[in-house]
Write a structure and sequence with these properties.
The complex is a heterodimer of chains A (305) and B (252). Chain A is mainly alpha-helical and 305 residues long. Chain A contains twelve helices and two strands, in the order ααββαααααααααα. Chain B has 252 residues and is an alpha/beta fold. Classes of the chains: A mainly alpha (305), B alpha/beta (252).
Chain lengths: 305, 252
Amino acid sequence: MAQTGTIGDKVFRTILVITAAIILLIMVTMVFIMVWNALPTIKSFGLSFLIGREWKPADSIFGALPFIYGTIVSSVLALIIAVPISLGIAVFLVEQAPKKIATPVGFMVELLAAIPSVVYGLWGIFVLAPFVRDYLGVFLEKYFGWLPFFQGRLTGIGMLTGGIILALMITPIITAVVRDILEVVPTQQREAALALGATKWETTQIVLGNAASGIAGAVILGLGRALGETMAITMVIGNSPQISASLFEPAYTIASVLAANFADATDEFYLSALIEMGLVLFLVTFVVNAFAKLLVARVGKRMHA
Amino acid sequence: MESKISISNLNFYYGKEQALHDITLEIPERQVVAFIGPSGCGKSTFLRTLNRMNDTIPIAKADGTVLIDGKDIYAPNTDVVALRRKVGMVFQKSNPFPKSIFENIAYGIRINRMYENKADLEQKVGKALHDAALWDEVKDRLNTSAFGLSGGQQQRLCIARALAVQPEVILMDEPASALDPIATQKIEELIVELKKQYTIVIVTHNMQQAARVSDRTAFFMLGKLVEYNATQKMFTNPDERLTEDYITGRFG
């Protein structure tokens, strides 16, 4: 940046540099503090912390695998549900809906993203869990019960409900990002397809092809959100550290176990174990988000090349 | 001479604003007709009424008749998808798909199911590239991205893509306005070559281009058709004073 001579501009610039530096400082101290505080378990358990299946804080046995499993499976389940729905909404908003409908619906999608997590959680307990227990679960057991995913006791609280709640929460963000990406696909691409005798569906495929890496980015952004989501899923997933193929069974996520147990973690080892899990979650979401941003940015660049 | 396209009393509106006023015009088969006129005169809008590309604009509305081979393309039961296959279009800015050169051409053939097997598809792609005078330049890199081509090559690729679905009419919306003189010359030679097989309608800003490539020229101003004549006559002895003023550069 060019230096201007005046003192005012120098002060202004210094203030901006400081504000920007703060964010970096926060990141670095966060990682440092987490690593520092997790050192006791990192040292004494090493890799077995990540692959251990037992979680008995009272006996100082800390295996994080059930939590890692619960986090990943609930998030992937959320993606499986949310991605097709989000794509459908976004394509409808950009390619099909008249402006009169697209604007309010788009606005509503954005509002959904603003609902506090705990409200989703309450809704999950009082509406979604009974619905899963009495209808959806029964249906899945009846017709897909031959799959290991849909066997076992059906309480309404468990992995399936957790995944659905997460799906609801990430649908708005995936929809909004995909919509923005579809909007920057040049009109000339649509016209090129139409001029060759493409149907609406075939034209949409061309548009999606143009936006492919951006859509991948949006999906991964949603994944990042799902991995780190805490309150709502804590309220419906059952909070039991087990690894079960059945989606009806309760499970536990990293974020949930941190939120639920931090107050009780009095001894150094227990606290260290929780912080190490926090570190794992932090690193995973950091990498996932960085990757997503990269993909989204690439589309923007290509469109304006 | 046989008319390929016959337009009568066509009015066109963007919402309340009228963009075309009562246009009546005949486009003969296998000739090149050029539309000229100042910016915003409606020539592009008019071109886009001929394959109903304006349908994508929600507030746009056309009334009047446009007959292609005697069939009204604005009749309610018109199959717009089939119409656009028959009336191809090349745009001002080249717009290849983010696919390989081969797949760009193959796209239209595929979606219209116009091939029997892989060899047939390859043969048709090759023919389109030959017809667009691009084959020699791309034959060794058919599977590379279309974005690797130069601007002029990309535009000829778009022409080849349009030719691949075997249209009868090709609409060109200022196809050379973004190209350098040499690339422009290639496009113009191509247009002259293509009119042996196709009816071509070209919108151009460049009056010399209209004079060089077209058989007939239509001059538009403010949404009205001022004059429509043989190009030769139009550029030497136009009927209308306004046309003469425009062509000689007194305004525009």
